[in-house]
UniProtKB/TrEMBL annotation:
GO terms for molecular function: histidine phosphotransfer kinase activity; phosphorelay sensor kinase activity. Keywords: Kinase, Membrane, Phosphoprotein, Transferase, Transmembrane, Transmembrane helix. Residues 606-622 have a biased composition (Low complexity). Residues 603-646 are annotated as: Disordered. It is an enzyme of class 2 (transferase). This is histidine kinase. GO terms for cellular component: plasma membrane. It catalyses: ATP + protein L-histidine = ADP + protein N-phospho-L-histidine. It comes from the Bacteria.
């Protein structure tokens, strides 16, 4: 990947180094011409040839300077390699003249001229080594022209001292080549180190920018989150304090309690949205693709949002489709719930349209949610996908949402392998669309809206609760007791095993993740399950409650077949999850053959969907499900919020 930039950097540096020496070389060559002419002057052999040769030498020297000027003035007329090649041509022309001119010395009657000329050539060769040694081409084209004629002619004299000179010259030629080789290697290493450093500096600058952006986004996230979380907390504090007012009537107390519940629910929704986003980020949520009819999913979400739309006088139109898709219905429903919720919220008149279009795709299509609402200015199209960003809610009024819906949708769509597209302008409505994969009708194993057979009521169930916090055990016992369950509380694993040894056979075991004495809920549940299995009670529902978001840990728990419920846990969510798990257990027992088989890789998904009258889809309801439960959840979720909350 980076070989080319390095070669280019080497070439660029070479051009700089080679041409930088040329003005000095220009004067050195005039000096050489002057010296050579001076030593030949007393008796110039073959004057016309001599004049032609030295005239050519002088012209080549001037051409070298012209080339240097061109390079200075027009460095970009050719590539660095082009300049290097031209410089090599200049070398051939420039060094061939003095090199070949030694022939005149051997023609001369003066016996010391060959030696004097050779000394001149060795001096020039040293200059070439210094100025052109960095580049093989420039070095290799100059040195042989300078030294070879001299070596050959000295050898040709067949006298002892000239043969010695020829041998020394040949040795010098070899040595200078070896030195030039290491000179070139060193040069390349220096350039490579410089390029690496530059590359590192650039990538560090990019990373720094990304880190700064992330830090800014985090700051914005926490600022908005802490504000939105503080508001209902503040209200709850004030309302709770007013409960102590002895002058308040029972009716006022009831009203205050109602407000507290409302604020707790608001807080809960916000927590769920934040946790849902965090779960998507942490990679715990996995995609489980099923073949299903898109019309069924449209029907489900349509029925959730039609009453809200109708209440605002809006028509919710669902385009009929017979398309079968291969996608994750749970995640897809969360996407559509969020988009429809926004469409209803930001549309005052007209209609909302939900449908699928082929839009030029050979297979599958694009699901579109359109509205005739207020629209979104183009300059906000990117920012609305940032956490807590809202176009027009400067007071951060919680009733107008929190700005977490679209970031969630965007992540979900990208998890499903697509890209969320937006077309919108103020006053002209909005269109959100994303691709879906085509499915295969023969791959459909169950209708999305199929109801679960068999009752899964909490009435008459035995539940073992493990938590080291007595107040939580007390709260759970009271709640489950109201649902008609028989509850047994245990502070730790040992107490839980003692309860089992006592003959208590639970239908469900609820366990906190962090227990006392460095024990985890996963360890306690494993011990309980093993003991129950030894006693012949297989398939007891187990549920872990955690505030932890560590994905590796959660994934490991899911692999052990332990569903995880994320704190904060509301009564409705707990009940819904327990009923779902009991349904799952009953179905596993009675209808094992009917359960959809999934590939081993499709393991865990968040389950549940919270549609509902006023809330955005908070997504996973804080539940991470093991493979089996996820399958059931995908097929048999309760259909509306009211059913769920009941
Ligand atoms: P929320 O709706 O809870 O504020 P979202 O993340 O879902 O948060 O949306 C972010 C912002 O994008 C909204 O505050 C709203 O300004 C804008 N927006 C989203 N959907 C629409 C829509 N269908 N029409 C107009 N504006 C929208």
């Amino acid at each position: 990947m980076r070989a080319d930039p390095i070669q280019r950097a080497i070439d660029e540096d070479l051009v700089r180094v080679l041409y930088a020496q040329d003005p000095i070389a220009f004067f050195s060559h005039w000096f050489s011409i002057a010296v050579l002419v001076a030593i030949y002057w007393p008796a110039i052999p073959s004057p016309p040839l001599f004049i032609a040769c030295f005239g050519f030498y002088a012209a080549a020297n001037c051409a070298g300077l012209a080339l240097w000027i061109c390079n200075r003035r027009y460095p970009h007329v050719m590539s660095p390699r082009g300049w290097i090649n031209l410089h090599a041509v200049r070398g051939v022309l420039l060094y061939s003249a003095p090199g070949i001119a030694i022939w005149f010395a051997f023609q001369s009657p003066q016996s010391d001229l060959p030696l004097l000329h050779t000394v001149m050539l060795v001096t020039l060769a040293a200059g070439v080594f210094m100025s052109n040694g960095f580049d093989l081409l420039n070095f290799a084209t100059a040195i042989p022209f300078l030294l070879f004629p001299s070596i050959v002619l000295h050898f040709g004299t067949h006298t002892f001292d000239r043969t010695i000179v020829a041998i020394v010259l040949a040795f010098f030629f070899c040595a200078i080549n070896v030195y030039a080789l290491s000179y070139r290697k060193l040069f390349q290493q220096v350039v490579q180190a410089r390029v690496d450093q530059q590359y590192l500096a650039e990538s560090l600058a990019v990373q720094k920018h990304v880190a700064e952006e992330a830090s800014l986004a985090k700051t914005r996230f926490f600022a908005a989150a802490s504000h939105d979380l503080r508001q209902p907390l503040h209200a709850i504090g004030l309302l709770a304090a007013s409960l102590n007012d002895p002058a308040a009537t029972p009716a006022q107390h009831a009203k205050t309690a109602e407000h507290i519940v409302y604020n707790v629910e608001a807080l809960n929704q916000l927590f769920n949205q934040v946790l849902d986003l965090a779960r998507l980020e942490s990679g715990v949520t996995q995609v489980i693709r099923l073949h299903f009819r898109l019309s069924e999913l449209f029907e489900r979400v349509g029925s959730q949002y039609r009453p809200q739309a109708a209440a605002k006088g809006l028509a919710l139109r669902i385009a009929p489709t017979s398309m079968v898709v291969h996608d994750d219905p749970v995640l897809l429903e969360r996407v559509l719930s969020n988009l429809l919720s926004n469409a209803v919220r930001y549309t005052e008149e007209g209609a909302i349209w939900l449908g699928v279009r082929r839009a030029g795709r050979a297979t599958g299509g694009y699901i579109e949610v359109r509205d005739s609402g207020i629209g979104i200015p183009v300059e906000e199209h990117e920012r609305i996908f940032e956490e807590f960003y809202q176009v027009a809610n400067p007071q951060r009024d919680a009733r107008q949402g929190h700005g977490l819906g679209l970031p969630t949708v965007k992540r979900l769509v990208s998890m499903l392998g697509g890209e969320l597209q937006l077309r919108s302008a103020p006053g002209r409505g909005s269109v959100f669309r994303f691709p879906v994969q085509a499915g295969d009708a023969s791959g459909i194993v169950a209708s999305l809206n199929e109801a679960v057979a068999g009752g899964a009521s909490a009435q008459g169930r035995q539940v073992l609760c493990i938590d080291d916090e007595p107040s939580i055990l007390e709260g759970l016992s009271a709640l489950l007791g109201r649902w008609g369950c028989t509850v047994r509380g245990a502070r730790d694993e040992t107490a839980a095993l003692a309860a089992l040894a006592d003959g208590f056979v639970p239908d469900a075991v609820l366990c906190d993740y962090q227990l006392a004495n460095h024990r985890t809920g996963a360890q306690a549940l494993t011990a309980v399950r093993n003991m129950l299995a030894r006693a012949g009670h297989e398939g007891v529902v187990t549920l872990l409650i955690t505030g932890d978001m560590a994905s590796a840990e959660l994934a490991a728990l899911a692999l052990q077949g332990i569903p995880v419920l994320h704190k904060p846990v509301t009564a409705a969510r707990l009940r819904r999850t327990l009923e779902m798990l009991w349904q799952q257990a009953e179905l596993d027992k009675g209808r094992a053959a009917a359960v959809v088989e999934l590939p081993a890789a499709d393991k865990v998904t968040d389950a549940g969907s919270k549609g509902g009258s006023s809330s955005k889809d908070t997504g996973a309801d804080g539940v991470t499900m093991p493979p089996g439960a996820a399958r059931i959840e995908a097929r048999h979720r309760p259909q509306s919020a009211s059913q769920e909350e009941g």
